[in-house]
Structures are given as C-alpha cells and as structure tokens.
Design a protein that fits this description.
The chain is of the alpha/beta class. 52% of the residues lie in helices and 13% in strands. It has helices at 9-14, 17-28, 44-48, 52-66, 77-90, 95-106, 111-117, 138-144, 148-154, 178-181, 183-200, 210-222, 232-237; strands at 2-5, 32-34, 71-74, 108-110, 130-135, 160-162, 204-207, 228-231. A 4-stranded parallel sheet has the order 2-1-3-4, sandwiched between helices. Helix 5 packs across helix 8 (138-144). It starts with a strand and ends in a 7-residue tail after the last helix.
Length: 244
C-alpha cells in the first residue's frame, strides 16, 4: 500500500525526527511511504484565523499532492483532523472539489490510528524503560477518535509503565492560534496540565501532537521541571531523544 506521509509544517521546522520516526513505523507496518517534496501546511492556521482564501489554496495543494496515495497519514491529530473534518466546509457549493476532498478525507488517518486500525501492527521497533503518562491532544481525541490506539501501541514495548494523569483529556492550552489570542488563559491551562504531569509521578509525558509538546515542555521548563516530553512516534520507533 502506498501511504503518503503528511509531515506537518511544525514537525518539518521544529522536530524532523518525528517525521523520520513515523516513516520507520509505517514501513514496519508494510507501507510504501511517499513524502511529497513540495508539501507545506494543511491550512489550519489560516482556517482558524478566518483567512478562507489561503486555507482553500493550501487545501487544494494538499489534495493534489496526496490524492494518488492509498492513504494519507499524519503524526498529528490536529492536521489530520483539519483534512478529514474541515476541508469539506471550505468547498461547499463546489461539486468537483468537494468530491476530491471527500475522497481524500475518507483515507486520512492520524498515525497511531492507522498503525492499529489499518496496518494492524503487532510489534513496534522501539525500546523504552520507565514510567510514562499520556496527554490526549484535543483534535486527535475529538476529531479523529484517537484514545486507545497510542496506549495499545505503547503497551507493546516491554518496560513501559503507563501512569495515567488526572484530566488527561483536558486541553494543554496550545490550540494553535488560541495560545496567541488568549495568552493568559493558555498559560493557566498549561500550568494545570503540567501539574497533572508532575503529580502522575511519570518520568516522561508522551504526546501525539508537536504543538502540545512544545507548549507543555516550554511550561515545564519555565517551572524548573525536567520531565521528558516525547512524541509517541519517537517512543514507538525507538528514536526518542535521550534525557540530559
């Protein structure tokens, strides 16, 4: 099966190792991975800011780049949720583009969901020893139905102990442009999340979206806390950065 990997602009710019980890996992699941060299953004920042013209332009670009693949997979519930859930709203009244968008939406998956629901991955290449807690990113949980999939995959790694934090489904305060528009509210949400991470006693917090990772890690470090913050793809692929 030919799987198009939507790397996401944030991963490309801030933590490319997540993209390489995703490729390793997809290949372990039997995929022939295709990474369009011209891919950029899914258009979510423009969409959330009311810039409909740019959101439509980026959506058309994504559709053209990935519609020839059997599946589109992203290591982000936020970007995959934009494609599957919101692209359709951008093309209301445009029959031709609506058909193409709907076809792509049907084969768009968040990474861990794809590995469990489509690839049926029974083993993961990663190794990790220690306790982790998992943060359920808002878009992955509510738009893509991602909840049990990452936990099921993490449970396949010998030595991993899951310590669920309180309010694991509560927003971390990032929310893309939300963190910029509502800084004080975002900071309070991030503080609450960080306290739950600390209270869990886990050595690391694992997340499925890089935006959440950056927000949580930034707040933890400002609080003087050294808890590791890792992307689920990096842990599953055995490519998690080592702690200091």
């Amino acid at each position: 099966m030919r799987v198009g990997l939507f790397v996401t602009c944030l991963v490309d710019l801030m933590r490319p190792s997540i993209g390489f980890a995703a490729i390793r996992l997809l290949e372990a699941g039997g995929a022939d991975v295709f990474v369009p060299p011209t891919q950029t953004c899914c258009g979510q920042p423009a969409y959330n800011s009311g810039d409909r013209a740019d959101a439509i332009a980026l959506a058309r670009k994504v559709v053209a780049e990935f519609e020839g693949c059997d599946y589109l997979v992203a290591p982000s519930g936020s970007c995959s949720g934009m494609i599957r859930t919101h692209y359709g709203e951008l093309f209301t009244g445009d029959a031709a583009w609506s058909t193409r968008v709907e076809a792509l939406a049907r084969k768009t998956y968040e990474l861990t969901d794809f590995l469990v629901s489509v690839a049926g991955l029974d083993r993961v290449p990663g190794t990790f020893s220690g306790s982790i807690t998992y943060h359920d990113a808002c878009a992955g949980l509510r738009e893509m139905g991602v909840k049990t999939q990452p936990r099921a995959l993490l449970a396949k790694i010998p030595g991993v102990r899951l310590a669920e934090m309180a309010e694991c489904e509560m927003c971390c305060g990032f929310g893309g442009t939300f963190a910029v528009k509502f800084g004080e509210i975002s900071a309070r949400l991030a503080d609450n999340k960080c306290q739950h991470v600390v209270n869990s006693g886990a050595e690391a917090v694992v997340v499925g979206d890089l935006g959440c990772m950056l927000n949580i890690e930034g707040r933890l470090r400002r609080r003087g806390d050294a808890t590791r913050v890792l992307h689920v793809a990096e842990v599953l692929a055995g490519e998690a950065p080592q702690g200091d």
